[in-house]
């Protein structure tokens, strides 16, 4: 194993968002339920990430608000920043934006590893900040993002592993004047509801599909825009028809053979005119389908299909497997627009 590296991480955020609880869960493996306002504490922890041992010094800072003076010491010898808000507090979400601005004012234009963390994700009934809002804020900062619960040790570990990876990425780009960074790989053999929970970076720039066909989503929990990936190599995100490198989850496409058959309906709940297809169709109107929309469908055969909003297999795509879909919401579409359809090709 290579020599241990020392890294100093600062944890910042509004009062009572769980900064200390998250840190103690990571360091000691226990959840501290009572709230005791922190002045400033420092914790140490040894952790191994990707075969490299790190000696972490964790600065658990006092809670701040929009009027707090940002201490100059928070810019000295810090290798990464974890900015924490509570998903149950709009105030903490607004204050974290102010803290981020003060941090940038202090460090200037130097590129620094920053990670945004939405804590208390276990408090479902009290949530007021959505996952999408947190992710969008992190993306606007070009920062990593995770949601966590200080009650769950694994999410706490994921947070600190992630900031280490972010710090190493920037260190790699800065060393010796090179622009290269560490290459992080993740191998998936089944459904993965969150790449981030596996400690993977929130950016995916290349994919190799070694077997089967897969559908990837730009959000965790199999939500958001879909992308179909069949056997082969995808050296950049343009190859899977994406406009960004963000992916959050993936799962294998359910296929049982090579007998393809699909029936599409003009109306919801399988009403109105219908059309049956067994081959790819690059333009539905060319097959006599005089509408640009499909409101229901049935997949009868063994295979799966991809629906495209535009002709010639372009635009947003949606994967449908064997079963009945009584409305376009059933295949997670934003509208009923479908103008081309093709079969999913599977290589076992």
TrEMBL record:
Keyword Magnesium appears in the UniProt entry: yes
GO cellular component, one term: Golgi membrane
Keywords: Eye lens protein, GTP-binding, Hydrolase, Lipoprotein, Magnesium, Membrane, Metal-binding, Methylation, Nucleotide-binding, Prenylation, Repeat
Classification via Pfam families: Crystall, Ras
Keyword Nucleotide-binding in record: yes
Gene3D superfamilies per the UniProt record, alphabetical: Crystallins (2.60.20.10), P-loop containing nucleotide triphosphate hydrolases (3.40.50.300)
Reaction(s) catalysed (UniProt annotation): GTP + H2O = GDP + phosphate + H(+)
One Gene Ontology molecular-function label: structural constituent of eye lens
Residue span, Beta/gamma crystallin 'Greek key' domain: 212-254, 303-345
Membrane-topology annotation of the record: Lipid-anchor
Subcellular location: Endoplasmic reticulum membrane; Golgi apparatus membrane; Lysosome membrane
Function, in words: Small GTPase that acts as an allosteric activator of the canonical mTORC1 complex, an evolutionarily conserved central nutrient sensor that stimulates anabolic reactions and macromolecule biosynthesis to promote cellular biomass generation and growth.
Quaternary context: Monomer. Associates with the mTORC1 complex (MTOR, MLST8 and RPTOR) in a guanyl nucleotide-independent manner. Interacts with TSC2. Interacts with MCRS1; the interaction maintains RHEB at the lysosome in its active GTP-bound form and prevents its interaction with the mTORC1 complex inhibitor TSC2, ensuring activation of the mTORC1 complex by RHEB. Interacts (when prenylated) with PDE6D; this promotes release from membranes.
Family, similarity comment: Belongs to the beta/gamma-crystallin family.
NCBIfam families: small_GTP
Protein name: GTP-binding protein Rheb
Protein species of origin: Grus japonensis
């Amino acid at each position: 194993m290579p020599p241990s590296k020392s890294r100093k991480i600062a944890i910042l955020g509004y009062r009572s968002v769980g900064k200390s609880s998250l840190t103690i869960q990571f360091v000691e493996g226990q959840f501290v339920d009572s709230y005791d306002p922190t002045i400033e504490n420092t914790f140490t922890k040894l952790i191994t990430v990707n075969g490299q041992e790190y000696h972490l010094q964790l600065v658990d800072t006092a809670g701040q608000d929009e009027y707090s003076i940002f201490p100059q010491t928070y810019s000295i010898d810090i290798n990464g920043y974890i900015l924490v808000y509570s998903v149950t507090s709009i105030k903490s979400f607004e204050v974290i934006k102010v803290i981020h601005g003060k941090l940038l004012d202090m460090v200037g234009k130097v590129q620094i590893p920053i990670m945004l963390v939405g804590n208390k994700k276990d408090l479902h009934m009290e949530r007021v900040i959505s996952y999408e809002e947190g992710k969008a804020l992190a993306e606007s900062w070009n920062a990593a993002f995770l949601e966590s619960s200080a009650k769950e040790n694994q999410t706490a570990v994921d947070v600190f592993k992630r900031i280490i990876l972010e710090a190493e990425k920037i260190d790699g780009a800065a060393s010796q004047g090179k622009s290269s960074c560490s290459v992080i790989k993740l191998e998936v053999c089944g459904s993965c509801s969150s790449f981030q929970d596996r400690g993977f970076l929130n950016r995916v720039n290349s994919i190799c599909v070694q077997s089967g066909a897969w559908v990837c989503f730009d959000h965790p929990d199999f939500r958001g825009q879909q992308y179909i990936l069949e056997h082969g190599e995808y050296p950049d995100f343009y190859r899977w028809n994406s406009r960004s490198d963000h992916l959050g989850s993936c799962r294998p496409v359910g296929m049982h053979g090579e007998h393809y058959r699909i029936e599409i309906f003009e109306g919801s709940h399988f009403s109105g005119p219908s059309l049956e297809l067994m081959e790819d169709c690059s333009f539905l109107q060319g097959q006599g389908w005089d509408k640009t929309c499909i409101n229901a469908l049935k997949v009868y055969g063994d295979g799966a299909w991809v629906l495209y909003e535009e002709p010639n297999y372009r635009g947003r795509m949606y994967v449908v497997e064997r079963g009945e879909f009584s409305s376009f919401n059933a295949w997670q579409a934003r509208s009923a627009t479908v103008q081309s359809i093709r079969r999913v090709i599977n290589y076992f």
